[in-house]
Specification:
The structure is a single chain. This protein is an alpha+beta fold. Helices cover 27% and strands 31% of the residues. The protein contains eight helices and 14 strands. The radius of gyration is 26 Å and the shape is elongated.
Length: 287
């Protein structure tokens, strides 16, 4: 699929997007799906029999240290320590994970519900983008939404741990010197930002996700990325768009050499007809 579609209502921001070749990324908190970014950790894998595998991945203890603790029958204490460590790390990771900005595209230009919901009942429009041109942008990475019925949880394998300090401290409860490990983790699997419930699958969504680089940026409602002038390769206007608005879109598209198409409802079967390369979109009437 070489084309991506971005449904928009008619507004000043939409016109700016057309004129300036801009892509608005909304903060995730402003999206209409309240279930966005399900950041859930799978604790079912944290079992004593999996402790060697967990340690092999996170590498907080050496193999010899872990074996020594097994000999001392301290494996349950180690597992509990790992759990406490992960829980603490997840609090910070979860906060950072919700600091995202989203730009949504669709793989379909003739979806009736999209024209109804996001193009304001066909009074709006749909931008056609060249997927390859968008992908060439240094900050934009396009990924399809994974539609599912159950949240796919994060696992310990999605974390990278790095030890910041190793020290020995006297434990009064144990009455001996104990190894202390201080570490931090990074999340390297961001698939949670690309999953939604299957009820949304009619959108055929492909999205660009940007992460806030500071608390100040995270407080914003959105961020803008300017793309290549070659990225926008067509505009589909809704057949119910006001004639004055049509004139504005037609004039701007003519200046940029962008083809104009028209979307109209097919009331015989509830589908959407797309009329390509319309010569006079201002006065277009469905035959």
């Amino acid at each position: 699929m070489n084309e991506l579609y971005r449904y928009r209502s008619y507004s000043e921001n939409t016109i700016r997007e057309l004129i300036e070749s801009e892509l608005w990324h909304s903060h995730v908190r402003l999206l209409n799906d309240p279930f966005e970014h399900p950041f859930e950790f799978d604790w079912n894998e944290f079992k004593i029999e999996k402790l060697p595998e967990i340690n092999e991945h996170l590498k907080l203890l050496s193999h010899n240290q872990l074996m020594s603790l097994y000999i001392q029958q301290e494996e349950n204490r180690v597992l509990d320590s790992y759990k406490k460590f992960i829980k603490t790390q997840l609090e910070d990771l979860g906060k950072n994970a919700t600091g995202t900005f989203i730009c949504c595209f669709s793989g379909a230009c003739d979806e009736p519900l999209m024209w109804s919901h996001y193009a304001n009942g066909m009074t709006g429009l749909c931008f056609i983008y060249d997927k390859a041109e968008l992908s060439n942008h240094e900050k934009i990475s396009l990924n399809q939404i994974d539609y599912n019925k159950r949240v796919k949880k994060i696992t310990y394998r999605d974390l990278n741990a790095s030890v910041t300090e190793r020290a020995k401290q006297f434990s009064f409860t144990k009455g001996k010197m104990m190894n202390q490990v201080f570490a931090k983790t990074e999340l390297f699997n961001f698939n949670f930002t690309y999953q939604k419930h299957i009820r949304w699958n009619y959108e055929a969504e492909i999205r660009s996700v940007l992460f806030a680089e500071s608390d100040e940026e995270n407080a914003k409602s959105g961020v803008v990325e300017t793309v290549s002038d070659k990225a926008l390769i067509g505009v589909i206007i809704g057949s119910r768009m006001d004639k004055t608005n049509r004139k504005v879109i037609a004039t701007l598209c003519k200046e940029r050499g962008i083809p104009i198409h028209v979307a109209a409802p097919n009331k015989k079967d509830y589908s959407v007809n797309i009329y390509r390369d319309v010569d006079d979109p201002v006065n277009f009437e469905e035959s």
